[in-house]
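Dear colleague,

Following up on Tuesday's group meeting, I ran the structure prediction for the two-component complex that the binding team flagged. I've pasted the input sequences exactly as they went in, so you can double-check that nothing got truncated or mislabelled along the way. The structure tokens for the whole assembly follow below. Feel free to forward this to whoever is handling the docking comparison.

Inputs:
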Amino acid sequence: MRKLLTGVAFWVACAPVALAAEVTDFTLENGLQVVVIEDHRAPVAVQMLWYRIGAADEPPGHSGIAHFFEHLMFKATDDLAPGEFSATVKAQGGNDNAFTSWDYTAYYERVAADRLDLMMQLEAERMRDLQLTDEAVATERNVILEERNQRVDSDPGSLFSEQARAAQFLNHPYGIPVIGWRHEIEALDRADAEAFYRTYYAPNNAILIVAGDVEPEAVRAMAEKHYGPLEPTVDLPPRARPSEPPQLAERRLSMSDPRVSEPYMMRTYLAPNRESGNQKEAAALLYLAELLGGSGTTSLFARGLQFDDPKAVYSYAFYDGTALDSGTFGLGLMPLPGVKPEEAEAAMDKIIADFLAAGPDPVAFERIKTQLRAAEIYARDDVEGLARRYGEALATGLTLKDIEDWPAVLQSVTPDDVIEAARKVLDRRNAVTGWLLTEEGAQ
Amino acid sequence: MIKRFVTLFFLLASPALAEIKPVEVISPGGIKAWLVEEHSIPFTALEIRFRGGTALDAPDKRGAVNLMTALIEEGAADMNAQKFAETRDGLAAELRFGASVDTVSVSARMLTENRSQAAELLRLALTQPRFDADAVERVRGQVLSNLRAAEKDPGEIAGQSFNALAFGDHPYGTSGDGTVASVTSLTRDDIVAAHRMALARDRIYVAAVGDITAEDLGALLDHVLGGLPETGAPLPGPATVGLSAGVTVVDFPTPQAVVMFGQAGIDRNDPDYFAAYVLNEVLGGEGFGSRLMTELREKRGLTYGAYTWLADYDQADLLAGQFATDNRTAAEAVDILKAEWARMVQGVTEAELNKTKTFLTGAYPLRFDGNAPIANLLVGMQMVGLPLDYIATRNAKVEAVTLDDVKRVAARLIQPDQLRIVVVGQPEGLAP
């Protein structure tokens, strides 16, 4: 084994850090930012249009409108019949879809590279020319209620996450579910949708990512032809969301549901996000999540709770820092049958306390550093994944430089950075701890 | 502008095909593999399949192959689970093991820098797994936890109820993960026996894509797989699909009913397979625009999504599908499903045929967009017996499907009097 580890250390020292694909960027006169990521291995192109508008930008009382709108974007425009958008993409052998988060709404099409021009024509068409009807809005509202039924209301774990997130944010709209609260979805109407659309669906509020077998100059010409003539929104409101006050009180929740087979715990802490020009703390938190609960075998939680003194079926930690206003650091476990919830949670907290006292194990730290570097090599195999990485970062306030610096920032993190970030974030006054219980367990 | 879109369809109707030309590599030791060399990124994606999977389990040992597969990465040779994971992660190698009804699969990504060390680790995992007592108990606990969760998951309940109706006593009729009782009673000997049954050289399929030469791949395969036994356990015999028309309601308290449905399907090597493939696409295929998606979602807002698929198991074929809808609208949605099934007996329209062919032929090259996805496709092709030049000929097979072909296969395949519909929930107007 010694020999293997030496080999790895050598490799880490010699491998180049930057392994990024060819990336080109430019901005159209109307404010549309364009990023081209080249990968010529397969004759495929992905177009992603990211709008800097998400659930956290919704007017109070109208939760779900950003996601609802994502659905409505597949309806009629002045030149396209209802459903014609997707039918056209499909007729080219392509696929299309969209997704909404708190900070962005994104649309994408994946097609043979020689179909890119048509995809731009379509996507540009619906940026400004959507034509909504009351009937289309009413039918789609039912679809979204069924989506909520399927994804949230049928799953006690999802319902519980929704409650926990609402408790995490005292003031910031990150506490509102992206899909919306059911009673507010039921009240959304065409007027809500149209006001939202006119303001936020504009070239100066969007980022176009084109990835795959494409040439930057050709993309520029197509983008100018299709997106260039679109009018920007002149008084685009700033993305100023209500911010969090100091969080002074630990929050604890419990919920039980007959559909829960075994209890589990999840805890999230309010954490810093990746900030433009200052991503070091976020990078350190990524290491922290990996060290505490990244691997189901070798992380501190796995060793302590699943191997040395088994108390948990599984355990984990994660860090989500790609967000405009605030990140979250999370951890959780499911106790082994017969282990009391409070006993399992105390064991996890003891591991955290010991870690804060002792700091990272240098061998584990180096292993994670190696894996993060290798992840950059594997990431190059998935150009759509790269496109998402760029879109998500740009839509959450980061710059191209931040994205390109990120692998090097990750490699520059030291064990001291990790312990410093951990001491700051792992404070239960910032945290929501939730237990989802079986019906019997709650009695 | 509508007119302009239509013109463009026409002009761009035949897409550039990806030039993916796998070569067959036969290792010095006689192991066959398909390879695509792609040297621009310094890693190799390797996919290995062992035919058999969880269907190899004896009736009283259900879950043995699944538990065995989950334990492959939990220690090998002189490494316990901790040491094995540390070594793998230190090499930044990815080694994933999975069991499905018909296969045990290995998905590996190995950096060129340390490929021989990563391959050695894979060899030890496959040929010298330890199945340590503490690892068995730990992973068994995880499997049992999943099984208990599945008992309360309407989607899982629907799938298992449907499979029981379709396949009865055949291994396909019960979950390959086993039951709480069967997994609880598995011994280490059962796991060792499952390993001996499932991982053998008479059932291996391999594809590699990436930064590796044919010569290096051959040597790697002999090293990694050469130590496995020559033969494994016999495969289970064919399963008979015993479905009859009707609705089976499984009472379960949930706001939204899960509806799973199906009937007997068609063999992958049937001369009419491509016509059936087109038919399925029209009925409930990918994305928007299928008949079920249009009727249930787009026109009426009854569901978030409705899909059908041709399930090509090794020992049976199904045409199956699924959607979820509010308990209050389940009866209406089931009626629409039945009506669409009956309508499909007539085949498809010319417009539907053309639209579907354009989509399928255009979408095909888009699948080949990365080393890992290509390796996955190539190993799958081998398992269903497709030739090395299949990629270049596949779109022509789709293009050749005629309206009469679909009509013929529809009359033969679509059997409204065999359509079994399982509804899990508390649907109004549907009797249990």
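The CA atoms of residues 303 and 325 of chain B lie 5 Å apart.

Cheers,
M.
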